[in-house]
Amino acid sequence: MTIRWGLIGASNIAREYVIDAIRAEGGEIAAVMSSNPERGAAYARENGIPLAFANLDDLLSADIDAVYISTTNELHLEQALAAARAGKHILCEKPLALSSNDARKMVVAASIANVVLATNHHLRNAGAHRAMREAIRAGAIGKPVAARVFHSVYLPEHLQGWRLKDPAAGGGVVLDITVHDADTLRFVLGHDPIEISAFTQAAGMAASGLEDGAMCIWRFKSGLIAQSHEGFTTKFAETGFEVHGTEGSLIASDVMTQKPVGSVILRTAIGEEELPLERESLYGRALGAFHAAIRGEGQPAATGEDGVWSLACAEAALQSARTGRAVKIEPGVRVRT
Asked: Membrane among the record's keywords (predicted)?
């Protein structure tokens, strides 16, 4: 069957990545909703979308099967709950909400409505990260004992806006990038973090009340410790991901990105080798898995539960930065249905 989509939010990420991925995986974009009618109509024309709405109820009443939510973070919760009540499957940008408790409400609502809820954590779909995960599972580096993530970039001007200026919208680097690093670490290592210590900074780009840089130290259930650096302000930094084990290391370069690029080197006592990587679209792989989940064939690449986990990690990082103490990561808070 052809899955018909409604876009909640006329966003840059949908334009640049998600619309093409939906179509490439056999879906159809039926409608877009923007609270700005002129923007929505122009967006629909520019992207070949038949219908544009300025009201969420109108979009959810249209002939669609699924929604992609890419509005500002504070809007995700109510939009997702409304979509679940309307029986629509939900792919939601990270973070799922402004708190892990609210994210848990989304998971519960989707379960009650029997719809698929996925978090758009694109990085776990990268060939580099999947190759690292499989190498670790195969014992290529022995027991993993430490990891480092380099994910400090320069936020392009056209994306700055609310991410740097609006605390109420869920701006700041932790809710934008640390959530991704949390998910990528969990995915690659195959273990959950249990504690985090974090420092944040305002290095000149962020408005009062927001951070534009963060450094975190993570402790995992396996005993592994990890370091991550997230930022909006570093124009010339490279991204990367390292995992070090008792018998070897994985050194990945240029892999914390939306594009299927980068390399992974396996270094052991016998030398170095570059791992072969699949170069498919990260978003295409995510949409293929999501469509399959709607058909009852497996799970989405990153589930709603994964989104709860990454948001709980971000919450703990912000609390640690605020209090100066290590904070336990507890995503298991349940809400009444």
From this structure: no
pLDDT tens figures, 160-180: 888 998 888 899 999 999 999
Domain span at residue 26 reads 4-122+284-302
| Within-domain flag for 208 | yes
Q: Are residues 75 and 105 in the same domain?
A: yes
DSSP state of 86: T
Tell me whether residue 228 is in a domain: yes
Q: How far is CA 81 from the centre of its chain?
A: 19
Q: Kindly provide the b/e burial profile for residues 227-250, where b requires at least 16 CB atoms within 10 angstroms of the residue's own CB.
A: ebbbbbbbeeeebbbbbbbeebbb
CA angle 297, 302, 303 (to 5 degrees): 75
113 and 135, same structural domain? no
- What's CA 194's distance to the chain center, in Å? 19
Enclosing H/E stretch for 93: none
Per-residue confidence (pLDDT) for residue 335, from 0 to 100: 40
pTM confidence score: 0.95
What pLDDT does 162 receive? 83
Q: Output the domain CATH number for residue 214.
A: 3.30.360.10
Both 129 and 48 in one domain: the answer is no
What are the tens digits of pLDDT across the range 267-303?
999 999 999 999 999 999 999 999 999 999 999 999 9
Which three-class secondary structure string do you get for 273-298? EECCCCCCCHHHHHHHHHHHHHCCCC
Instruction: List pLDDT tens digits, range 219-246.
Output: 999 999 999 999 999 999 999 999 999 9
Based on the fold, state whether residues 132 and 242 are members of the same structural domain. Answer: yes
In the β-sheet with 225-231, what is the strand arrangement from edge to edge?
271-274, 263-268, 248-253, 240-245, 144-152, 225-231, 213-220, 193-201, 327-328
